[in-house]
Amino acid sequence: MSVKFEKETIREAPVPGGRRHELVHELGERLTGGESMTGYLQAYLQQLEKNPLRTKMLTSGSLAGLQEFLASWIAKDMSKHGHYFSSRVPKMAVYGAFVSAPMGHFLIKILQWLFSGKTSLKSKIAQILVSNLFVAPIQNVVYLTSMAIIAGARTLHQVNATVRAGFMPVMKVTWITSPLALAFAQKFLPEQTWVPFFNVVAFVIGTYINAHIKKRRLAVLRKKASISGHVGSLSR
Question: What is the Cα–Cα distance from 43 to 125, expressed in whole angstroms?
């Protein structure tokens, strides 16, 4: 007499989140490398250690170009050809790579050198104050000057007017966000990742400011067009 046992099929209960959970997990593995530490983030940090200035230039240039494109899209600011990829996008990329990145690299290096080995609460507060009262104003003046030239300013008076009009609003945003970002970096990030981290913070803030300026400019242009159209109809 023979006895035949049927093979049981055991079905695993579906994981909550399903495919979405798997995608998030896979993305995390790709970015960080998981336990193997061979992900994109680790590769980026290695490049940052080997070629710090070049890596920061590539990062800043890419983010600056993307910032201009996103700000144009958010503000619905199309070029004369009817799309958001205007000549300002590559110009912003050049600014990010050859102006913003080297300047940020050396200013942050000076800031880190001034407070090297100082971990007390007073030192951290002093570092935040120096960053906001000296580093940030320099970066914002250079940023606004570059924006004015990219937007078409050709005389010193035009550049001056742009810097004066935009300096305090930009500084107010900086004074709100910069202490929080710097306190976060002091607490959680290794020093070699500070510049890329601040690049991402600047990217988010810069996109918001850029989009806001574009919306205001477009509103002024529409108002002028409306007034001239109204005057034209009256003169007929």
Answer: 32
pTM for the predicted model, two decimal places: 0.74
Residues 208 and 65 sit within 8 Å (Cβ to Cβ): no
Q: How far apart are CA 39 and CA 22, in angstroms?
A: 17
How far is Cα 83 from Cα 81, in angstroms, rounded to an integer? 6
Work out whether the CA dihedral 40, 41, 43, 44 comes out positive or negative.
Answer: positive
Q: Which residue has the tokens 């010193």?
A: 156
- What count of residues does the chain have? 236
Contacts of 130 (CB under 8 A, 6+ apart): 111, 114
Residue 119 φ then ψ, to 5°: -120, 5
Task: Produce one character per residue of 71-83: b if its CB has 16 or more CB atoms within 10 Å, e if not.
Answer: bbbbbebeeeeee
pLDDT in tens, the chain (236 residues): 444 545 454 454 555 555 665 665 565 555 555 555 556 778 888 888 899 899 989 999 999 999 999 999 999 888 878 888 989 999 999 999 999 999 988 998 899 899 988 889 899 899 989 999 999 999 999 988 998 898 888 899 989 988 998 899 889 988 999 889 888 988 888 877 776 788 788 899 889 888 887 888 788 878 887 776 655 555 55
